[in-house]
Amino acid sequence: MGLLGWSEIHPFTIASVADSHEGLVLFCKKAGSWTNKVFDVAVLGWIVLR
User: Fold this and answer.
1) Is residue 48 part of a domain?
2) Residue ranges of the FAD-binding domain (predicted)?
């Protein structure tokens, strides 16, 4: 990630709702090879999409 990695723009957001039992919510835009792989894993059913 590097020294300035925290300041880079990322195409995803990690969100959660305190009253929800769904766990972690990840909003992700397909914007490159890494986020495309995340989407592919989700499509395979390793991640629940709603």
Assistant:
1) no
2) 7-39
User: Tokens 């395979």 map to which residue?
Assistant: 44
Query: Kindly report the CA angle at 19 between 49 and 10, in degrees rounded to 5?
Result: 50
- Is position 28 within any domain? yes
Question: How many angstroms separate the CA atoms of 28 and 30, rounded?
Answer: 7
Whether 32 is in a domain gets the answer yes
Element (H, E) at 25: strand 25-28
Domain count, the chain: 1
Residues 39, 29: Cα–Cα separation, whole Å: 9
Q: Give the range of the structural domain holding residue 30, as residue numbers without chain letter.
A: 5-43
The pTM of this model reads 0.49
